Amino acid sequence: MDHINLFCDEVWPSSPTASRNDDEDDNISVQMTENIITSKRSCTSFDEISSHDDEDDVNNNGENDQFRHMTKEDIELAFNICLEKENTYLPKPNYLQYLYYNNLIVARFRTIQWFIKCRSRFNLSFGTVFHATNYLDRFISMNRNSINNITEWKFWMIELLSIACFSIASKFIDTNPPMLHQINQMEDMEHSFEASAIQRMELKVLETLDWRLACTTTHSYLQLFIHQPHLQQHIIIIPKINHFLLRAISDTKLVEFRPSVVAASAIWFCLDRFLSTSSLNIDHYSLLTRFFHQHQKDDIIRCHNMMEKLWSSSNDGDYYYNYNYNGCPSSPTTVLLKDRNSIRDDHEISPFLKCYDCPNRPRKKLRTCCDQEKILL
């Protein structure tokens, strides 16, 4: 695992150049943006390492080569790094209340539902969905004052933001991301957007997030948790855990919990629920929470109890299978898209994007390859 950089703290710059004005930023080439996003993959995240651990990717023992040779100390070190890192990638405080107050609960749910469909349609990693959701939540929470001072959230704004977040996440996580027009043509969108509008929205998202894309998500903890001693034999249920984690991040009731807490609670729930009775003599709670402080353990128990209630209240008592989105068509050509409302870039979108202009925000100079080599020497 010498190619895995566990110590990536992502101190990369926040903007392409120091000399561009705002108009030039809006006209930046898509290729340059993609190159910058791709270059950040050097800070490998656990979502990328375990990106395709779905049913078809669980081999004979369901093990992942990158994690198979990690020692107990390696896992503990990586876990502590993730715990420390996740604090800097959380939505702003009171985000849950903001969603309720602005009637964004359904919009957020539909967006993540759409992320999941896109992932299945384009055969992308699970990590792409979790990263896109993180970008969505952080962007909304960081710009709530800006949007409220100008206008109110409209559904086409959420759709444009959703396309931008998913496009950025797929370029950051996956090695073969879909083209922009392919994402824009996905069903379940009520509006269509010009490519230039989506590109400008992407740049606004990147600038707002300070170009910090290597976030720690609930999915980041999956391989770390499941490769602990006494849990490795349960790797076969990783596909079920993946889908259960998707259900968890879609549920607004769980937004208040940190990614590590949601991950531990969901994995604990799945281990107890889906394993045979012969495995129930293992104390999964103790194994999953040994790296947490007491107040975090209390949150895990509270989150787990909420999942139990959601399970019991769901149809047929199945919290996992009621949220499986693998049933969508395998190819976009099999779908007849309905007519959509077209949102023109120069008519409605420009005023919306100006809500997020930060002319006084200091810019940082992009490190060149030579600069990076000097740092490594």
TrEMBL record:
CDD domains: CYCLIN_AtCycD-like_rpt2. Residues 113-207 form the Cyclin-like domain. The keyword Cytoplasm does not apply. Keywords: Cell cycle, Cell division, Cyclin. InterPro entries: Cyclin, Cyclin-like_dom, Cyclin-like_sf, Cyclin_C-dom, Cyclin_N. The keyword Ligase does not apply. This is B-like cyclin. It comes from Cannabis sativa (Hemp).
